[in-house]
Design brief:
Elements lengths: L6 E4 L5 H12 L3 E6 L3 H13 L4 E5 L5 H15 L4 E4 L14 H29 L2 E6 L12 H21 L4 E8 L2 E2 L23 E2 H12 L10 E4 L9
Helix pairs in contact: 1-6, 3-4, 4-5
Length: 249
């Protein structure tokens, strides 16, 4: 097992992409902190699956956009496991609203969940990573960091912030064995994970791979980046979208 002895936090892991990531890490030996905002059934179910794999799971309800709740989650996680080797910042919200109607609270609500939480979780985990000389931080980004969308100014701002945050941390922490990357999902079909079908419109015809992505496509990349096989990859924004969008630098 490639991650035996490692502990991981996956925010928003009660279902869909987060659930798949949590289970992928557990299959490779990691113990996992499972988080959802409000549904204890979800985190309990994922935790049970992790325990069936022979790993430890710590289910915690917390709104990561609420600083006090997130800090309590981190306190509990560090008390239980002593340290966090892997942090997957997956939780996000996407409430679209025209900019002319957007309030400051609307703006702050998205940034608190999508961007601030990544700072808070990483800041709590990094001291232990520095001490052990090993760590992985993966931020789940979004296409709206790279293309504007009506009603999504706050979402785009948060996701662009995650890209910059990823680059800065990878530069600062890289010499200490800590790798930081951003993974950007394309159109993901979560129906086989119990989620709702995405509204595809004409987008499916624009995907060269000929299909929507699955949550396991995202989980597989995150797992790779967490293993020694991904040790030379850091500071990157990696798109997983079947070729629907291609980005160069």
């Amino acid at each position: 097992m490639q991650l035996e002895g490692k502990t991981a936090l996956v925010t928003g892991s009660g279902r869909n992409i987060g659930r798949s990531i949590a289970l992928a890490l557990a299959r490779e030996g990691a113990d996992v902190v499972v988080n959802a905002r409000a549904n204890m059934d979800d985190v309990s179910s994922v935790s049970a699956e992790i325990r069936e794999l022979g790993r430890q799971a710590l289910p915690i309800l917390a709104d990561v956009g609420n600083r006090e709740e997130l800090e309590s989650l981190l306190d509990n996680a560090l008390s239980e496991f002593g340290h966090l080797d892997i942090v997957i910042n997956n939780a996000s919200v996407r409430p679209h609203k025209p900019f002319s109607e957007m309030t400051y609270d609307d703006w702050r609500g998205v940034l608190a969940t999508d961007l601030d939480s990544a700072f808070i979780t990483s800041r709590a985990a990094v001291p232990g990573m520095l001490e052990r000389g090993w760590g992985r931080i993966i931020n789940l980004g979004g296409l709206q960091a790279h293309q504007g969308r009506h009603g999504g100014a706050h979402i785009s701002a948060a996701k662009v912030g995650l890209v910059g945050f990823t680059r800065a941390l990878s530069t600062e922490l890289g010499p200490h064995g800590i790798r930081v990357n951003c993974v950007v999902p394309g159109m993901i079909d979560t129906t086989r994970d119990g989620g709702n079908a995405p509204r595809t419109g004409n987008r499916l015809a624009d995907i060269p791979a000929g299909r929507m992505g699955y949550t396991d496509d995202i989980a597989g990349l995150c797992l790779f980046l967490c293993t020694d096989a991904g040790d030379y990859i850091s500071g990157q924004t990696i798109h997983v979208n079947g070729g629907e969008r291609t980005f160069g630098g």
